[in-house]
């Protein structure tokens, strides 16, 4: 029970419950193909079919999140406004932005999104994590922290996965965590820090009274095609397969050892978020039902949809 519900929890973090309010965790891609495969410019029938399977899986996951009725959505993004060292939380009353699709830019392909963010919960979360010696901070924009008039800017790393949860955003608040930019070069070295942060985040969130979910915004290997911007690597396919095996088996070694052995050549923006999520899952006393909805690379980058929900739910 844990994805979107993190926004309100910190106002009462000393309140403990017999039943967890961490109601689910989800992995969702942020590639524009997921938004609308009609604009995906390919003559490869298999790639086109995979693009639609990714899109349909994203719709299904969005519906599952809506059915959980979370109070808070906590979103981890690898493409946000980032600090070199700290994990940055966005501290603004509102966030707004847009994304476009692959092969169709904004305009005309604009997918706009506005969210209400929980400033009180974010401040409490950052304060508690700092007390636990985590490398966290918050960032405000265009005004006094927590009371800005202008929405915090969001882009594809936040907008694409949240777009599929629009049915919840009329009543759910959002907390955004931006992964540090050192993830580009040091993702494997960060693994102990990421799992430690994930464990502390779960322990804090699990003491709350509001229903929370976690969404990891993540694309997988970016080196599936020679024609792609990052070229081809033989590491791409085994990396994506190891990530899928981690979901289905919940074996940490599939991600933190096997996938980690490929990530420097596979070039995955989502790896650090997945490692953090593994720490969260392993900190829980719950047993999790995991499901892999899709794991494809219709273009040069891999896209995975997955869910983890408590078996007691």
From TrEMBL:
**Annotated signal sequence range:** 1-18
Q: Does the keyword Signal apply?
A: yes
User: Which InterPro entries does this chain map to?
Assistant: Xdiol_dOase_suB
List the keywords (alphabetical).
Signal
Pfam families for the chain: LigB
**Residues of the Extradiol ring-cleavage dioxygenase class III enzyme subunit B domain:** 46-297
Q: Looking at the keywords, is DNA repair present? A: no
Q: What is the name attached to this protein's record?
A: Extradiol ring-cleavage dioxygenase class III enzyme subunit B domain-containing protein
Its lineage opens with: Eukaryota, Metazoa, Cnidaria, Anthozoa, Hexacorallia
